């Protein structure tokens, strides 16, 4: 039996009906059997504040850190807010990176998918996130780059993917990522 | 009598004894009489989530938006977290930028000061913030760039600035900013 | 009589039939009478190398520096190469920024227009260029941001603009830039 | 016998007595026996211009492309010019990335070392280069990040490294890079 890699998926939008959440679920549905994708809650994490880093940090921080710590790999699916990473996702990075020397991300292979209604496809958020992932020692898949633009009409009313080309591209991404994880996971 | 410009100061750290807060207060103390600096609370803002953008959005959002809307200018003083902008500050941008078409930042002259204990002085956070401020239509002072590194020993025990060179540089920054505000504020 | 501002236009592509050059010429044709746009040659500048910074630097460097020094304002129109600024344009910045303390760009109001056949519209080049312009003390117009994607079919065979919407957007950009120059030029 | 990986080293400064060249040579001297570092000339490459991409492109382009194509891995050592990548190095990326579909960089493991006299250590150039390397499909070592600041007095008059701490850090970098190459090279 082959190894199944546990992938922590962090979605940058908190909307209940988020396009990004739907893309993340679509990727989970297309993933090869070597990957098990799990969407990890980030909306309940108090803002990172060193003053809260006591012997009893916020329970949501502890829960999040423990969940990510046991993952084999990381997948980020996010919109762009103001040409950068949404605060909720940036906060998850800040919380998971601490306490100093005990961050939970280091060494886990990652990929970044940005999704937006506009044409630019979240390019700014994508690369800002990548800059943080250098510091966090997350080796990020380089190609295919995933800037999913025009996402407003990506899904049909029944929840299926309405744009065949984008659907195929998402499949290509998740399979390339599976190869990346297989090469890099420890 | 000359105009006094109301400057909303956003500090990126939530620590009670934050170095960045102290730098912001030092800048307030050095500012020429044409500027009135006011530190605006951002730590209580719920994460931006479009689902909360109802007719009755969170009270903290409304308070923050109203405060910034009446400011003449913006000053950002922030550490770098994971080579980018701390989530609490990014969230303040996200909250203030919405609802669509009703953002509160546009057109107000701004400046970015980054402060960190390390040598790099928050360069990554500084430029990520600037990228967002392009979208938000905040004209940002270009020079002097303010990457305040080695900030761990910037202040003496009595709260005064222990490094004369850095103190002079902060004075230079706030005076250049006063000129920038005088040129650009509407 | 009103002041006419001398605008040095730097085009990032060296192709004879460059789309970017055509966009630059289109902008020149649409500009209000307060602006005189002049495309400045950058393709003949030897790579910046401090060893060449003698009492007799390369003639092309001297010519370029003198031309930009007398301009009132700067307009950059460029494709994206490898998610960043084309080398020829970056070299023009490097040459014009030196010798130390004698750079020719400082204080001149600027704008950045990126043009590409793809959907992303040169976002990466646009913001990398902006980061350099912080250091060079060029106040850059923030809005409208100009990421001109899908440029492969922007022009008709007779050289006119085939996409009416993009044509209107270019007009909006050059008029906003004229306002920016009028406010900021010294 | 173990494999020895052929590493193409691209140095961003063209100065004869460049600090970056000296750092590159120091790294070559410290490298484990699994790596053979070779400094590849980039200063003679004509600016990338699609019009020159004929059946007989410039000889220097052909020479550079052939040299990089046979390398197993890539090491970039560069100063920062105007908060970004020096034009000569960016041009090497532009030349090596073309013709479309025949780029020579893809898949080769890489590392980025930035070296500057100032405190910031070339952070801006480092991350701009990394953004291009995403597009070029070069998997880049994330940690240790290498921002070598204060490089003006790094070398003693006899050419040896005068700062022991920096010397040790360079050794750490080249050994981490050797591990990265061993994991990723094909």
Descriptive report:
The structure is a homotetramer of 186-residue chains. Chain A is α/β, with parallel strands linked by helices and 186 residues long. Chain A has a single domain, classed as Flavodoxin domain (Rossmann fold), CATH 3.40.50. Chain A is 36% helix and 15% strand. In chain A, strands 2-1-3-4-5 form a 5-stranded parallel beta sheet, with helices on both faces. In chain A, strand 3, helix 3 and strand 4 form a beta-alpha-beta unit. In chain A, helix 1 crosses helix 5. The first copy, chain A, is globular, with a radius of gyration of 16 Å. Chains in contact: A-B, A-C, A-D, B-C, B-D, C-D. At the A-B interface, helix 3 and helix 4 of A face helix 3 and helix 4 of B.
Keywords:
homotetramer; alpha/beta; 5 strands
Sum this structure up briefly.
4 copies of one chain form a homotetramer. Chain A is of the alpha/beta class and 186 residues long.
What's the structural blueprint in terms of helices and strands?
4 copies of one chain form a homotetramer.
Chain A: E1 5-11, H1 19-30, E2 35-39, H2 59-69, E3 73-78, H3 87-96, E4 110-115, H4 123-135, E5 146-148, H5 164-184
Parallel strand pairs in A: 1-2, 1-3, 3-4, 4-5
């Amino acid at each position: 039996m082959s190894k199944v890699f546990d992938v922590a998926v962090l979605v940058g939008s908190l909307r209940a009906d988020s396009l990004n959440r739907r893309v993340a679920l679509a990727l989970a549905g297309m993933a090869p059997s070597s990957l098990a994708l799990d969407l990890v809650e980030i909306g309940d994490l108090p803002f990172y504040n060193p003053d809260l880093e006591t012997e009893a940090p916020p329970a949501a921080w502890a829960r999040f850190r423990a969940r990510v710590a046991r993952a084999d790999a990381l997948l980020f699916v996010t919109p762009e807010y103001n040409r950068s990473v949404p605060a909720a996702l940036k906060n998850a990075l800040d919380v998971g990176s601490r306490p100093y020397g005990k961050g939970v991300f280091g060494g886990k292979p990652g990929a970044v998918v940005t999704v937006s209604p506009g044409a630019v496809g979240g390019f700014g958020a994508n690369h800002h996130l990548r800059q943080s992932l250098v510091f966090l020692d997350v080796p990020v898949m380089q190609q295919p780059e995933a800037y999913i633009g025009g996402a407003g009409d990506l899904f049909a009313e029944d929840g299926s993917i309405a744009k065949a080309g984008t659907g195929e591209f998402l499949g290509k991404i998740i399979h390339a990522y599976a190869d990346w994880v297989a090469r890099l996971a420890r």
